[in-house]
Amino acid sequence: MLANAKGKVIRKSLDFARLNSDSAIKDLDLLYQGKGWALTRPLSTALQPEDPDVSYSDSSRVSKMQTIKCVVVGDGAVGKTCLLISYTTNKFPSEYVPTVFDNYAVTVMIGGEPYTLGLFDTAGQEDYDRLRPLSYPQTDVFLVCFSVVSPSSFENVREKWVPEISHHCPRTPFLLVGTQVDLRDDSNTVEKLAKNKQRPLSPESGDKLARDLRAVKYVECSALTQRGLKNVFDEAILAALEPPETKPKKRCILL
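The line above is the sequence of Cell division control protein 42 homolog; the predicted structure tokens follow.
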């Protein structure tokens, strides 16, 4: 947690209330204080479906919500889809099915107002290199993912993914996300990497790459155990809603 004496962001543990098995509210309650944002602990009382502020059955209300568009990119099989499914449904997929394109949505409360957090999944395979950028327009923040047990996916962050999003959306912020951290200490995984004279990537490696590529920051998580999962999206929202005193937020326009 950071002090906010000079308007800096305060980070606390945030709870979320699930309305039903298919939808959830992630309550962030971002409050503007002085010259910065303060991230505060939400009210302990969970919002209910009949709440006048958030109603999934009230299409006119939902259509008026402001939106935050978050696009997830990275090599195939690094866990992008699992990341999104685990976050939005609190369930881990039982099998791997390569994604073409898909999207998910949750509702977040920001400064007492409901926002739609749109989460866009993309295919990492080369076959979709020309199609994938069609999902980039109006993006507020990117999550650039790699697996901490896949050195090649780590290298492709520098060689492919950041150049791609920087070409199409040069002013849109992005976070570097290390996935599958539950496998970092898995003996079978470590043994397989060792056979190729490789080893799992350390948090320090992620931090350094994030600095080198000018990412907002490096975060890591496990979709299986949900360790660090919520923090990934909290940080993404903060990056999308950066204080106006820093620099104006630019949404992506396809170039």
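Note on the example: Confidence is low (pLDDT under 50) at residues 1-62. Residues 16-240 form a domain with the Rossmann fold fold (CATH 3.40.50.300).
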